[in-house]
Amino acid sequence: MSDSVPVSLSALIRRRKPGYSLEAPFYTSSKIFERDLEIIFGRHWIYVGVEPDVPEPGDCMVVDIGRISVVVVRDDSMAIRAYHNVCRHRGARLVHEPKTTVGNLVCRYHQWTYGLDGNLMFAEHMGKGFDTSCHNLKPVHLRSLEGLLFICLADEPPSDFDGMAAALGPYIAPHDVRNTKVVKEVDLIEPGNWKLTMENNRECYHCGGNHPELTIPLFAYGFGYAPEEMDEVQREQAGRYACMVRDYSAAWEAMGLPSREIEHLDDRITGFRAQRLPIDGEGESQTMDTKVACRKLLGHLTNPKLGGLTVWTQPNSWHHFMSDHIVTFSVIPLSPEKTLLRTKWLVHKDAVEGVDYDLERLTEVWIATNAQDSELVGYTQEGVRSPAYEPGPYSPYTEMLVEKFCNWYLARLAAHLDDRHAV
């Protein structure tokens, strides 16, 4: 459906058939893309990075979401703050590099100078009656979930962040994100709509045929399967996996590591899911040999065989926490048909490259997997452009969580729409 056809977005939402993919305009329309930026990314908690992105006072990180630029900075008291990356004089961008270190935030244009607390400290030639306190940087809501950083661009953010933090905090805390460091960051531009990137992540139906590296450590059975369609060998493997989940989960829980699935993907404004699952082979890490890639384990962990903790948050993140390293993923829309996937790898802050870890070995599984997924997203984007495309049925065994993502997305859109919004 072209952008020129005045169809109500509310009507598109109402006529969506449960259990089926979304209609083409949700993936191609520039007007729906603008609504996504305004409503989904403009009114919800968005995952943007980790506390170790800004480890020391004066360290800054810039995050761009649509036309909005945000600077995240650690101040002199070690608190982390976020501001709109806009000078209060004539609007010039303050911080231009993705990451940098500053003493103060100084506008290059006319040298208006702000402290790390956002207060305007210096503005030359503005006259004796000029009140600097009326021109401080505009703050952006920021919260940390055990070291994972979320921002909200709305004046009033969703009030349920504390509920998510209370549920997910005990799962994440043992991995001690705050005492890690980012050892690699990769930005990948995927050739598709951001929702296709997210939908692809929310299922492993495609894993067996497309991810030879990932399926070495990862059991696809952890994300659903159709038992009546399995042969004898597959049933045996699935049974072995079920026993592993039961036995390992009990052992991990006894160690004080929450492991059972908690899932609120489509019944809360700030949706989330977490579960600790076994890793195949040696059972240690998401690596090609399934052994730890970093000999210095995270936090106070001493047992390398802790499987992989998967954490998802709506609308734009997923994370894998192992005993030795963490991989985090942030999805940012760039255009109706281009999406930024930002991946970070973290290890213990005291780990030494070449001594405790080999960077290539640490990153090779997800570098390969991301490239494969990007190609699949591109294939799908090409298909949804076709007049022949119509919504197809999700597998009730393997794509249940894709359905929950779509349910969440449509419900959050609908909560802020009226019939004047056309696509």
From TrEMBL:
Keywords assigned: 2Fe-2S, Dioxygenase, Iron, Iron-sulfur, Metal-binding, Oxidoreductase
Keyword Metal-binding attributed: yes
Domain Rieske, chain residue ranges per copy: 47-151
Cofactor annotation: Fe cation
Molecular-function annotations in GO: dioxygenase activity
Name the record gives this protein: Aromatic ring-hydroxylating dioxygenase subunit alpha
Species in which this protein is naturally found: Benzoatithermus flavus
